[in-house]
Design goal:
Elements (H helix, E strand, L loop, with lengths): L19 H10 L4 E6 L2 E7 H8 L8 E3 L6 E3 L21 H11 L3 E6 L2 E7 H24 L5
Antiparallel strand pairs: 1-2, 3-4, 5-6
């Protein structure tokens, strides 16, 4: 199976000079966990929900979120994406095998890989995407095994 078959093609991105409030908004309202950081159309980094929470979390920086008792707005301090993003991003192509990319992700303990074709970001594949495929394949295998055990023909 190829990455093109399981990747998400609608990719939200940020730029390194964006403020992290944009990251906060996209992660929380678009229900995503990884955002490629682009510059002039090229992927130069990636930022995850975990990177964001390290900055916003109470253990690392209790002043990262500013609130007002008069209103319920949430203001994220003026930190730029470049200060929290990870550089040296591992990428893949749409033609790569899912099994190979899954192994790379496991080896490097990363949750998502941008998909690049002709130097252009065309998608992203996450560990969740791979788990969904694994789950479907395993269910099919288990159902086939059950039919064989019960003596039901493959029709």
């Amino acid at each position: 199976m190829r990455i093109a078959e399981i990747m998400t093609s609608k990719v939200f991105t940020v730029e390194q000079h964006d403020l992290i409030d944009r990251v906060f908004f996209l992660i929380n309202y678009e229900k995503i966990r990884h955002l490629p950081v682009v510059e002039k159309g090229k992927v130069i980094g990636i930022v995850s929900d975990r990177d964001l929470y390290k900055v916003l979390g109470p253990k690392s920086n209790s002043n990262a979120i500013e609130g007002s008792s008069k209103n319920s707005e949430l203001h994220v301090v003026n930190t730029k994406v470049q200060n929290i993003m990870r550089r040296g991003v591992i990428t893949t192509s749409p033609d790569a095998l899912v099994s190979e990319v899954a192994g790379i992700m496991a080896d490097h303990k990363i949750g998502a890989v941008p998909v690049i074709q002709n130097d252009k970001l065309v998608g992203i594949v996450s560990a969740i995407d791979i788990l969904r495929v694994f789950s479907k394949m395993e269910q099919l295998r288990e159902n086939r095994e059950k039919r064989i055990t019960e003596g039901v023909s493959h029709s």
